[in-house]
Amino acid sequence: MPREIYLVKVGMTMTEGMVSEWFIADGAEVKKGEMLYALETEKVNLDVDAEADGTVKHLVEAGVTLEPGDVVGYIFAQGESIPDVLPGATSQPEVVVSAEPVAVESAAPMAVEAVVSEGFVKASPAAKRLAKELDVNYLTLQGTGPGGRIVEADVQSAASGQTASQQPAVAAIQSQSSANIKASPLAKRIAEQRAIDLSQVRGTGPGGRIVQSDVENLGASIAQASGPVAGDMVPVKGMRKTIAQRMHQSLQDSAQLTMDMAAVMEDAVKLREQLIREWDGAARPTFTDLVIKAAAKALQKHPLMNSQFGGTGIQLLNEIHVGIAVALPEGLVVPVVRHADQLSLKEIAIESARLATSARNGTLGLDDYAGGTFTISALGMFGVDSFTPIINQPQSGILGVNRILDGVAWEGETPVRQKQMNLSLTWDHRVLDGAPAAEFLQTVVEYLSEPYRLLV
Q1: Is 382 helix (H, G, I), strand (E, B) or coil?
Q2: CATH, domain 252-455, list 3.40.50.2300, 3.30.200.20, 3.90.1720.10, 3.30.559.10
Q3: Which residues are catalytically annotated?
Q4: DSSP code of residue 59
């Protein structure tokens, strides 16, 4: 029996996704562990590896929106017979056709006929959604995707006043050339958005693969010109749309309040400097790493903050997995430091650095997003003194990390300069009241003010 290839599920909230790119061609051989296809959801892009050796057969083409767990292809073992019709295939395998009939008038461009099949237009679900958002009639567009299918780029070109038939031939050549370049899905998307030719980008990822930072570094000099300007309408789609929906829903579905409390950071600053010298490049702790460790230890003492509200009960969680919000050009992602309470400060520093780098390179794995029970969001690097973070549901709390500033303490009648950092805690009032929330935050502050306790 062939091995099924599934559309993998990333996190509990994923409801749909697509194979944005097949790395192994239909009928080609694959080795276990090789990159098989690129998964794209509204929040996450990642590469999926093959789980066995054999011959790959595609059941769906790239760009088809499916539910997690759906079969997208098969891997046939060596010597195994490959049927003409794959299990699960239908007599009409093209499942991305439009439900709207097309009236082809004599005045319509002949190019339209290339994408019309028995009264239907082939268009990717993403293209249809974008066309609706931008008020573009995609039924009249010429598709540049596989088999003449209409893709997002066609809709974007039409929205900007340039039809597909008017695009320079060199654009098609560059598109074809870029398709053969090794690059992460996120890097390809950013390059397309910023009109960057991937053939001009030097890859610094594994095996010379182009990653997000490579594209961003090349495009830094033209970022201002290629970005939105006053008067533009910026479409709310993809990750931005998902974040907007979930943040709004979080505020609607829970009773959120925020409080601030200052931690004395004199000893924490000294400890970080000492650890950087002691670890000698093996790890480089950040102040956020200190907060992760302090929060993990505090969650052990205050289990209500490490819980989920279930309507009729509050579920106290057995494990402590701390999510860290990482800012990307498309929005925020929250990879998770798993079992943060069981890790040493050095292990947390190494893991958080890996997660942040992988998030920016678009190489986070499935487990990197899974199971967060509490979240930390840091804005101190932007000079922020206080903010109101929004809870990452179904969690019960999120801790905001602000900048370290020169505060004032009093020794009798004498003012003394002192390193301080504000912490902003947002908690769900349905789960715990202000007093226990303040006790949790006070515990975090105590650990940071006496940072030697983070090492024991």
Answers
A1: helix
A2: 3.30.559.10
A3: 429, 433
A4: S
